[in-house]
Amino acid sequence: MTDTVTYRTRWADMDPNGHMRHSAYADYAADQRVVLLAKWGYGVARFAELRLGPILFREETKYLKEISIGEEIQVDGRLASAAADGSRWTIVHTIYKADGRVAATVTVDGAWLDLDRRKLTLPPPELAAAFSTMPAFEGKSQ
């Protein structure tokens, strides 16, 4: 796994049944994307400066193994597809339990939004190039 981020689940991540709530999976996937973008030099301040932001069109989560409070999880993101110009992309995040078993996959389809025009736009060439360095997702999400 590359660009993997490790987290410890929190009380706020849990539902009344004692396992991780559905939206927490999406939160961890989103955080892994933010960490990766910042690593590439595109943190929140840089996006604000560019008046650019990532947006999602679709998010799908497949739940495979239960996650409980206080568990250590790892989240990675792999590129399933991207337009040649970097305008649209699909990332598959895999959420692993501490023992390496896959707990869930979160698949997102996204693009870039010009924050002033409120229209889709192309990313800077450096950001599009950075996406091409992302490890490829191979196969079907679980």
UniProtKB/TrEMBL annotation:
SUPFAM superfamilies in the record: Thioesterase/thiol ester dehydrase-isomerase (SSF54637)
GO MF annotation terms: fatty acyl-CoA hydrolase activity
Domain of life: Bacteria
InterPro entries: 4-hydroxybenzoyl-CoA_TE, HotDog_dom_sf
Pfam families named in the record: 4HBT_2
Gene3D superfamilies xrefs: Hotdog Thioesterase
Record-linked CDD domains: 4HBT
Entries under PANTHER family matching the protein: 4-HYDROXYBENZOYL-COA THIOESTERASE FAMILY MEMBER, LONG-CHAIN ACYL-COA THIOESTERASE FADM
Protein name from the UniProt record: Thioesterase
Organism listed in the record: Hymenobacter glacialis
Organism taxonomic ancestry: Bacteria, Pseudomonadati, Bacteroidota, Cytophagia, Cytophagales
